[in-house]
Amino acid sequence: MKNRVAIFLVFIIGALSFFQCENQKDGNIEVRFNQQEKEEYLAKGKDIAARTLAVLSGQLQKALGEGDINNAIASCNIRALSLTDSLSNAYNADIRRTSLNIRNPMNSPSCIEAEQLKTYQKQFNKGEDLQPHVEFIDDHNIAFYAPIVINEFCLNCHGSPGDDIGSEEYKIINQYYPDDQATGYREGDLRGMWSIRFLRSD
Fold first, then answer.
1. Which pLDDT value is given to residue 66?
2. Cα(77)–Cα(20) distance, rounded to whole angstroms?
3. d(C-alpha 149, C-alpha 147), whole Å
């Protein structure tokens, strides 16, 4: 009896998640915006992503200067999300970095974000050029997406354990992120994407 109840609950939760995703997708299809508005939000999203990256990179470089890669890992765990939240308030936007292979569970993709990530991954696998773009989520919200690609510096924390990541550093990563999925990348790989949501001006 208990097994039947558990199976039923799993089915219900799965069904609710499916319909939630479908409802979110429907909002995307029904609403459109003009080219000028699209270009304005595209430029805005690019600018915010670049400025946010500069702040996060600066914080990481500072942590490295004050210690080593272990200090940088600890700093990233403690400060990255709070810095992003502060920048979200400053730019009046919801700024996120997300991926299909997450490190911090707080960066897990929403249904809509997961679909965009899968699209980017398919394009990457085909060798296509990945471009930032904007789209409507609903009547009041606009989303900006841009790919995040692994560079050489990223391999210190996201490369292959034993090759790019030392054993001690890998232990620390797993200490902070026991369910980490974000290693094994090579330079040029698609790591994830920026997801920035704006409240549309009336």
1. 79
2. 30
3. 6
Report the domain count for the chain.
1
- Token look-up 């319909």 returns 19
Is the Cβ–Cβ distance between 98 and 117 less than 8 Å? yes
The pLDDT of residue 30 is above 60: no
Instruction: Quickly state the pLDDT bin for 78 (edges 50, 70, 90).
Output: confident
Is residue 4 situated within a structural domain?
no
pLDDT of residue 200: 78
pLDDT tens sequence across 90-102: 999 999 999 999 9
Q: Which amino acid makes up residue 175?
A: Q
Is 8 inside any structural domain? no
The number of angstroms, rounded, from the C-alpha of 183 to the middle of its chain's C-alpha atoms is 15
- Cα(first)–Cα(last) distance of the chain, in Å? 54
Helix (H, G, I), strand (E, B) or coil at 143: strand
- Provide the 3-class DSSP secondary structure of residue 142: strand
